[in-house]
Amino acid sequence: MHKISDMVNTGKLLTSDGAWGTYLFKKGLVSGSCPEEWNLTHSDDVFDIAKSYVIAGSDIISTNSFGSNIFKLSQYNLQQKLAEICQTAAEISRKAAGADKIVMASIGPTGKFLIMGDVTSEDLYNSFKQQAIAFEKGGADAVCIETFYALDEAEQAIKAVKENTSLEVICTFTFDYSESGYKTLMGVSPQKMAESLIAYGADIIGANCGSGFEDMVEIVRLIREVSQKLPIMIQANAGLPIFENDKLVYSETPEKIKEIIPKLIDAGSNIIGGCCGTTPEHIKVISEIVNRYNQ
Ligand SMILES: [Zn+2]
Question: What is the pTM of this model?
Fold first, then answer.
């Protein structure tokens, strides 16, 4: 099994992959249907996405499993298929990645809030545990607990993966800029996130989604105030989306991020990829820059 942190600790920078959601819609997913069900019904399309990122130069390939928790799957009456959906997600990405690349299974937030009494910690833990066990069975090397905003939910996710599998744990939060600086939906700063996730036992921390690559430079600096050593992963959106002729357009084009990626590396990022709106073309640009630094 590959360990991302071992590779990073030798001084290597790594490229992860780009958007999955945006890509699935391009392939015909209609809103209101379950993206993760495509692992069972449209596995060739899911494979194509993974493969296109492998070809673009990703060292780390994600999986189509962002919403594969009990709570989200229940909305589609697919909760009984959780293990099958998660295991297949990892298998498809493994098939595309081959033995040499890293498969990193995606775990998104449940949408439930502990603070509101929606669910108990145990409910969250059990859902994350089932996902993680299935990912490991399907051949994943790591999980990426991503787009999180609440520390208590992240704690359950990290614990569930650590206590039930030997998968490496990456955890990345999503920050927005406000008058009080960069904060998640639940008011967590990058520094507070870093302190807490390290205490929960995450192997790699960072940020994803948000308002684009440019803003991530400062977020990386803030995380580095807390930890100089822990590997940092950044998977940014291609800027904030704007509507142009009824179509969502992202402002940070592959050409534009060429000048931002070196700044992200200089600030202390070790693994760089994309989130919403990023494409294999973005990943190709990132991978070329990363490879130049690795020489
Ligand atoms: Zn995103």
Answer: 0.97
